[in-house]
Each structure stands twice: as structure tokens, then as C-alpha cells.
Specification:
With 188 residues, this protein is α+β, with helices and mostly antiparallel strands. The chain is built from three helices and ten strands. The protein has two domains: 62 residues, no CATH class; 112 residues, Immunoglobulins (Immunoglobulin-like), CATH 2.60.40.10. The strands form two sheets. Strands 1-10-9-6-7 form a five-stranded mixed β-sheet, with no helix packed on it. It has a five-stranded antiparallel β-sheet with strand order 2-3-4-5-8, with no helix packed on it. A hairpin with a 3-residue loop joins strand 9 and strand 10. The chain is elongated, with a radius of gyration of 24 Å.
């Protein structure tokens, strides 16, 4: 009740709540939709606050969206292959909006205990060349950071990486596609 009372008298807070409500409009976690009407007693403040609110909206709309990629489970196997149990789930495929990302894990050529992560990125409606130069960042919980760029064929390669749980990010101009908890481990 105290919050609603405050929002009825404070134009800045009510504008902030309106902007937040608009931003969270499609969030399924949001339980209650808040609609706030500015107080009529503070109309003289609206003219002074309008440029500030406009600036805040411009700044918030300029932020880069983070899109979490969805893991696509492997296709069913043929009947004679079902008996072969595989503990590793490689290659892996992910989807995020119009992007598809395929990732393969191989042993590194330089050392027996190093690994190599190979990726292939496609974007529906775009050529592979249009993806060239997009930064790909691989980070671990130990704050290890590897950086690569997508080549002209849509590929990226991280050589000589250590086993760990990683986060992979494709840093596009208007959004960042994120693959979380990518388990990279040596397999026998």
C-alpha cells in the first residue's frame, strides 16, 4: 500500500515502473501487471521529467539483448545403434531465434590432455560470409577466457582448451547468444 501511495505521487518512480512493466511484458515469471497513472497533482513536474524519462528509455533500448540458446537433443538412432551406449553427447546442437550452432569436441593435437572445440554457426536467411568476423568468447568459472572470430565458412575453433564447464557467447551487433554450462571433459 505504501508503494502504491508513493507511486501515485512520484512521477519519476511511476515512469520507471511503467518502463519496467513494458520491458517485462512478455516475462512469464511476472505475476502481477502494474499499471501506474501519474498523479494529477504533480502535472507541473511532467514537463521537467519528460526529457529524463526519454533519455532513460533510449539508454535501456540501446542495451544488448542476451539470448540463451536452447539445447537440441540428438536425433533418435537406428535400431542397431541403440545398443551402443555413449556417455558423451557430442556433437551438440543449439538453437537461438534464427541461429543454429553445432559444436563438436575433439582431442587436441598438441597435448594428450588438451581438447579442441569446433563450432559451426548458421543464420536463417543469411549467407555464411555475413557471419564472418563475429566474435565468439569461451569463458570458464575459473575466469579462463578464449576468444575467436567466425570465419568465412561459419566456423570457429578453440584449440588447446582445458576440461571445465564453459559459457560460450556469440557477440552479434544487436544481441549476444549464450550457451551456458557447456561441459568440456576428456572422454575415453
Amino acid at each position: 500500500m505504501a508503494v502504491k501511495l508513493h507511486l501515485s505521487s512520484c512521477i519519476l518512480c511511476s515512469a520507471e515502473i511503467a518502463t519496467l512493466s513494458q520491458f517485462l511484458a512478455n516475462d512469464p515469471v511476472l505475476v502481477e501487471r502494474v499499471s501506474v497513472q501519474p498523479s494529477l497533482s504533480n502535472n507541473h513536474v511532467i514537463r521537467a521529467v519528460k526529457p529524463v524519462v526519454s533519455h532513460l528509455r533510449d539508454v535501456s533500448s540501446g542495451q544488448i539483448r542476451r539470448i540463451i540458446a536452447t539445447f537440441l537433443p540428438p536425433q533418435p538412432r537406428l535400431a542397431f545403434q541403440r545398443e551402443v551406449a555413449s556417455t558423451e553427447a557430442w556433437p551438440r546442437s543449439y538453437s537461438a531465434e534464427d541461429f543454429n550452432i553445432s559444436i563438436q569436441l575433439d582431442r587436441g593435437a598438441s597435448r594428450r590432455d588438451s581438447l579442441q572445440l569446433i563450432g559451426f554457426v548458421t543464420h536463417r536467411g543469411s549467407s555464411l560470409e555475413s557471419l564472418q568476423g563475429i566474435p565468439v568468447v569461451l569463458t570458464s568459472q575459473k575466469h579462463t577466457v578464449y576468444k575467436q572470430n567466425i570465419d568465412e565458412l561459419g566456423n570457429f575453433v578453440f584449440s588447446s582448451i582445458s576440461p571445465a564447464s564453459y559459457t560460450l557467447e556469440l557477440q552479434l551487433p544487436d544481441c549476444t547468444i549464450v550457451i551456458e554450462q557447456l561441459p568440456v571433459a576428456l572422454q575415453d
